[in-house]
Amino acid sequence: MEVVIVPDARAGGELVAEAMAQLLRRKPDAVLGMATGSTPLPVYEALADKVRSGAVDASRARIAQLDEYVGLPAGHPESYREVLRRQVVEPLGLGMDSFLGPDGAAEDVQAEADAYEKALAEAGGVDLQLVGIGTDGHIAFNEPCSSLSSRTRIKVLTEQTRADNARFFDGDIAQVPHQVLTQGVGTILDARHVVLMATGESKAEALAATVEGPVAAICPASALQLHRHATIVADEAAASKLKLADYFRYAYANKPSWQSI
Ligand SMILES: N[C@@H]1[C@@H](O)[C@H](O)[C@@H](COP(=O)(O)O)O[C@@H]1O
What we know:
Layout: E1 2-6, H1 9-26, E2 31-34, H2 41-53, E3 62-65, E4 67-69, H3 80-89, E5 99-100, H4 109-122, E6 128-131, E7 153-156, H5 159-165, E8 179-182, H6 185-189, E9 193-198, H7 204-212, E10 230-235, H8 245-253
Parallel strand pairs: 1-10, 2-3, 2-6, 3-5, 6-9, 9-10
Antiparallel strand pairs: 4-8, 7-8
Helix pairs in contact: 1-2
């Protein structure tokens, strides 16, 4: 995996948005897997700027959802479908016909998960999957000890993740659902390129386990070590516990100029 240490979240956002733009120039109907949370926001802002300025045409892009709360009523502002509609689909000038995602309000949740796997396969698979990381090393909503070959399915959140996400629910953990639908670790590994973005000190420990620890289900993000094209984009604070940080900086500074992330 390549580890790119950037000065701040804004620089990371620009780098990842440019990789998405390059992909769209090469493959205009690419499937972009988009994550929720605070971390990817600079990517979405930078990509929308590129679309507005005409630097890239995203009109044929397809947007795929990573995970979703179970049981929030359709249209709930914190359902990830709504979050991605506000933060990605609309700013890129797309309609929801470009969007792929499971319905967290479906009655038969496992059937919905299976249908989502099928929809992703029929769309030709995800070209670039952006993920964040939880403080416990989760990717999407694959909590510690998730199967590293899991597919989209229902999961129960840890208390820590619910506490971390309570800020989106008026700071009230009681409003954060216990159950979620999430792409599995195996589903994420099927994407052609996976980009994990991490910013801030609170992610430093999980990031060190992801990059330099063993591949282990206790840190689901460590499964990215098995991916042939995984890129970690971390700011200085998130990278602060990496033992090989100097090597990663050196490698990035000396890579071929034609090679993007
Ligand atoms: N399901 C999401 C993850 O996809 C995200 O990576 C994580 C971290 O969010 P943040 O980027 O806000 O720290 O939050 C949630 O748990």
